[in-house]
């Protein structure tokens, strides 16, 4: 097999020495003498891939009518061949958002002189990959090669990959204008990994758009000109609509920390899922999709022409023209984007809960259910291709320190015997892979024999979970896992304590504020029970076993399962507690903003000696009473403060007491009828519809906007209040999508299934 791989690499190198795919782009002109714009990659006979900013019209900022494409590196031709190219319909993606987009696909008016044999290649891990870049910078329009190395995800949004140049201090050895759109070749394999998009000439590095990102925007390019297995298999992709509606789940935080290699995570993470737990399974698929450049739903752009905002996924990317918010690239100026255009992230509820895995952090997802881990099978060609690509990637990556993150779904359901499956997985880890092993509920994948062992039904004495715990995981895994859960419980307790402090401040001022959660004590009890079951008593005495007693490996696997479910439950509780704290702080901030606004408006009157004006006194008193005398509906207080602000604007606009009285007309000694209604003063008519805090108010007659946010310095100090008696007003308010608080089950000694670890609900 290694000989076949070497032969393939040799053929690939010969193939990519072909010069036909490296093209130069010029500004439109029949003579072909236009300025050099940059580079491109010829795909097939008549498609050219490049960056949108390379060819964008400098005057309009939009797509050009046409550009000239020439082939300066072809040998044996009497003259340099040229073609006219236009942007292919549906393949114009200007830069936008967080360093996103910036792609264009051109179609030639006639086929190229020599068809291109090139294909783009998905690679599992870019980190450390040595690369070659061929561009057409100024003064060297005939072409120049640079060398460098990929450094992993880069840019504001991680759609791109950073490239560090080998000799950036040498004159003329930096990425500059003319390299944008150039292909990036992996040195040693000759595979085309992406195209150059942006450079920092002073720092000596740049960025490329990798193949997976290109395939995300241009599905047809991915199908026709891309090789290498996708990171996410088709059955496990998630639609943008499902992502937008999804609620966070505790397991997603565990997976994200593993993806980011955060402290406290391990090279082999284990995640148990109940066989019928559809919500947990969908949550897992979503967080893995969010970590993949090609399938991430976190893409939202506004199309050209002011049409309705259109959100794109891999399935519909490239279906419409799009406008740009202008990421600076090669000196192209930014075009600002109005937030009111409707640009939004693809999974807002998860983003609020802090679940935002980095794009490109997942290398490969393997669903080995029913497939062999040892050999390629005709009935499972995709698994065989993915495993082969993974082994080759590990062989190339070993010297450069890359560590691909691989999620193995159905690890306990493969056609390989448990002992052999664990051996293969161990070999992948030894070669440099980081694994997330997703195992179903151990009580369902095997049965317990008379001797306490479990039979997987596959001819092995024990099931996969047993072999994994016994042969693959370190002996102290359970103890370290329990310590990690204890740390999260401590964070839960601290979050709830902060929420109670905020609640005590809010409940005196606002009617029916959100209530803090009260999961901490229950979660701490779980850890005590788990520590007791592990024989640690919370701390492992000297000489005590780290896991259940030797000879009870079956109980060891079952105990790991309990730890997995307990961690998911604690994370769910923690996310709900954090959401409650956010809501409480939002209410407190709104109340303080109103107090600050009231004080600031009163100061404006004082500055013009109008504080005692009859119109102002009544409106101020009403607002002050609502804000300071006791709990009030926040909407009522907002209306009263706004009514006072209107009075202040009217009085200060005229600049004198008497002018203010004269403008009032009949009954000028007090505010007008509209102001009386808004302030709730005696003699006012019925009030208008209640205004929801946080929504925009219509401007007044002078065009002055509604309640502004003032700096903290303008807020009135708050009198501290002794804390309430313990345990009061702690009924959980945060609810999941069904509106019912979820109560995870403690992992007791008679555990027969997972505690409820459903979604944590929208923050």
UniProtKB/TrEMBL annotation:
Species, as recorded: Streptomyces himalayensis subsp. aureolus
Record region (Disordered): 295-347, 442-462, 657-763
Low complexity biased stretches: 749-763
Biased composition range(s): Basic and acidic residues: 442-454
InterPro entries to which the protein is assigned, alphabetical: Peptidase_S1_PA (IPR009003), Peptidase_S1_PA_chymotrypsin (IPR043504)
Lineage of the species this protein comes from: Bacteria, Bacillati, Actinomycetota, Actinomycetes, Kitasatosporales
Official protein name in the record: Trypsin-like peptidase domain-containing protein
Domain of life: Bacteria
């Amino acid at each position: 097999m290694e000989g076949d791989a070497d032969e393939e690499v040799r053929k690939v190198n010969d193939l990519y020495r072909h010069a036909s795919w490296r093209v130069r782009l010029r500004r439109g002109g029949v003579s072909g003498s236009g300025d050099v714009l940059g580079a491109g990659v010829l795909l097939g006979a008549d498609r050219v891939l490049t960056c949108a900013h390379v060819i964008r019209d400098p005057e309009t900022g939009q797509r050009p009518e046409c550009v000239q494409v020439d082939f300066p590196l072809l040998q044996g031709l009497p003259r340099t061949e040229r073609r006219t190219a236009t942007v292919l319909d549906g393949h114009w993606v200007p830069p936008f958002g967080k360093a996103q987009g910036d792609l264009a696909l051109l179609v030639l008016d006639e086929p190229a002189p020599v068809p291109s044999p090139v294909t783009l290649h998905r690679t599992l891990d870019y980190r450390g990959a040595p690369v070659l870049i061929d561009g057409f910078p100024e003064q060297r329009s005939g072409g120049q090669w640079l060398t460098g190395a990929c450094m992993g995800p880069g840019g504001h949004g991680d759609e791109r990959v950073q490239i560090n140049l080998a000799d950036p201090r040498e004159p003329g050895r930096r990425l500059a204008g003319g390299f944008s759109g150039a292909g990036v070749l992996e040195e040693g394999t000759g595979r085309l990994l992406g195209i150059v998009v942006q450079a920092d000439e002073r720092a000596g590095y740049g960025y490329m758009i990798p193949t997976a990102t290109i395939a995300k925007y241009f599905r047809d390019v991915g199908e026709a000109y891309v090789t290498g297995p996708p990171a996410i298999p088709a059955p496990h992709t998630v639609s943008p609509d499902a992502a937008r509606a999804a609620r966070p789940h505790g397991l997603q935080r565990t997976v994200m920390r593993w993806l980011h290699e955060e402290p406290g995570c391990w090279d082999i993470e284990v995640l148990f899922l109940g066989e019928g737990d559809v919500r947990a399974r969908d949550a897992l698929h979503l967080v893995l999709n969010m970590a993949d450049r090609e399938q991430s739903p976190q893409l939202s752009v506004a199309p050209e022409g002011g049409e309705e905002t259109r959100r794109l996924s891999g399935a519909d990317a490239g279906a419409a023209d799009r406008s740009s918010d202008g990421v600076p690239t090669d000196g192209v100026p930014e075009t600002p984007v109005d937030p009111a255009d409707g640009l939004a992230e693809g999974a807002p509820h998860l983003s609020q809960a802090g679940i935002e895995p980095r794009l490109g952090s997942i290398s490969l997802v393997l669903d080995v259910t029913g497939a062999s881990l040892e050999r390629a099978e005709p009935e499972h060609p995709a698994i065989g291709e993915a495993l082969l690509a993974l082994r080759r990637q590990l062989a190339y990556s070993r010297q450069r320190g890359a560590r691909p993150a691989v999620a193995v779904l159905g690890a306990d359901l493969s056609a390989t015997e448990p002992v052999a499956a664990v051996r293969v997985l161990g070999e992948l880890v030894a070669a440099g892979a980081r694994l997330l092993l997703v195992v179903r509920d151990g009580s369902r994948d095997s049965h317990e024999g008379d001797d306490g062992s479990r039979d997987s039904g596959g001819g092995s004495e024990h099931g996969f979970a047993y072999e994994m715990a016994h042969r693959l995981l370190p002996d102290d895994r359970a103890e370290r896992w329990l310590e990690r859960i204890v740390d999260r419980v401590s964070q839960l307790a601290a979050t709830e304590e902060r929420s109670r402090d905020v609640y005590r401040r809010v409940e005196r001022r606002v009617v029916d504020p959100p209530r803090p959660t009260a999961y901490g004590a229950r979660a701490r009890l779980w850890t005590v029970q788990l520590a007791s079951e592990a024989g640690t008593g919370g701390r492992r005495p000297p000489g005590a076993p780290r896991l259940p007693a030797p000879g009870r490996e079956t109980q060891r696997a079952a105990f790991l399962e309990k730890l997995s479910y307990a961690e998911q439950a604690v994370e769910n509780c923690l996310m709900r507690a954090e959401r409650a704290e956010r809501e409480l702080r939002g209410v407190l901030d709104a109340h303080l903003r109103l107090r600050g606004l009231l004080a600031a408006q009163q100061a404006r009157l004082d500055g013009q000696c109008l504080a005692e004006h009859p119109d102002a006194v009544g409106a101020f008193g009403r607002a002050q009473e609502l804000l300071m005398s006791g709990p009030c509906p926040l909407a009522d207080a907002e209306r009263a403060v706004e009514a006072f602000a209107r009075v202040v604007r009217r009085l200060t606009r005229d600049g004198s007491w008497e002018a203010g009285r004269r403008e009032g007309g009949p009954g000028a000694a007090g505010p007008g009828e509209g102001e009386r209604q808004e302030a709730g003063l005696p003699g006012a008519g019925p009030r208008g519809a209640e205004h929801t805090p946080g929504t925009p108010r219509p401007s007044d007659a002078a065009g002055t906007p509604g309640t502004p946010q003032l700096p903290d310095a303008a807020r009135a100090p708050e009198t501290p209040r002794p804390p309430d008696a313990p345990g009061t007003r702690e009924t959980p308010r945060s609810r999941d999508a069904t509106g019912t608080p979820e109560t995870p089950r403690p992992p007791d000694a008679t555990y027969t299934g997972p505690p409820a670890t459903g979604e944590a609900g929208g923050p």
